[in-house]
Amino acid sequence: MLKVDNVSFSYRTKKVLDNVSIEIEDGEIIGLVGENGAGKTTFLNILATLLKPRKGTITYNDMKYKSKKSAIRKQIGYVPQDIALWEDLTVMENMLFFEKLSWVKKSEKELKDILLDMQLDRFDSKVKELSGGMKRKLNLAISLIHDPSLLLLDEPTVGIDLKSKIEINDILDYMSEEENMTVIYTSHDMDEITQLCDRTIVFGQDPFYRELLEREGMPIS
Ligand SMILES: Nc1ncnc2c1ncn2[C@@H]1O[C@H](COP(=O)(O)OP(=O)(O)OP(=O)(O)O)[C@@H](O)[C@H]1O
Fold this sequence. Notes:
With 221 residues, this protein is an alpha/beta fold. It starts with a strand and ends in a 6-residue tail after the last helix. 37% of the residues lie in helices and 24% in strands. The protein has a single domain, classed as Rossmann fold (3-Layer(aba) Sandwich), CATH 3.40.50. It has eight helices and nine strands. The mean pLDDT is 95. It has helices spanning 40-47, 69-75, 91-101, 108-117, 132-143, 162-179, 190-196, 207-215, and strands spanning 2-11, 14-24, 29-33, 55-60, 63-64, 76-79, 150-154, 182-186, 199-202. Strand 4 (55-60) and strand 5 (63-64) form a beta hairpin.
């Protein structure tokens, strides 16, 4: 379980998060929604241990973020908004490179299986030859090499074709259902949020998102 208790965060004098609290069960899919600049990425970065809250506490499976950062990091897969891949290397070479950095070791066959789960079979294509959707799927595949139990994604389906979008959503759904992985992700696509998520957290002051989600019957925390 992930417990976020009264977390606040400011960049210098700019307050971005104000007393955010939520308890998230293993295997839930949580959507972070809200207007541009509302603090969704900041919150994800805090959950990913990349930023420290100014106030409040976070625990993951009874481990405190303050004292067990490296143990918690091993459980986290993080897919930031910007795609971070070696463009001149092939899909498989990218997987092998990131496997070397991973604390969980995987065989080439296991790495291929992760890619195949993503419908990505162009093992020998250079990344620069891939579509945007394929690159996003590869980024996601890399984040799964170390078998995380908590997956954090910043707009994983923005700007990609519908087929890749559906495939990514299917993977996230599968990971939550079958692997009991907790998935927390940001999106501006409200159809996607209402279809995929169990619950949402609304950031920012704009009532638009809250009203829209309430109309759709989507639980808000
Ligand atoms: N490194 C930083 N230094 C100062 N201010 C920042 C920094 N990063 C973000 N901000 C500001 O903090 C606020 C929240 O930003 P954040 O990126 O978390 O919002 P967001 O909800 O993810 O937005 P978007 O939907 O556009 O991705 C914004 O006003 C942003 O300009």
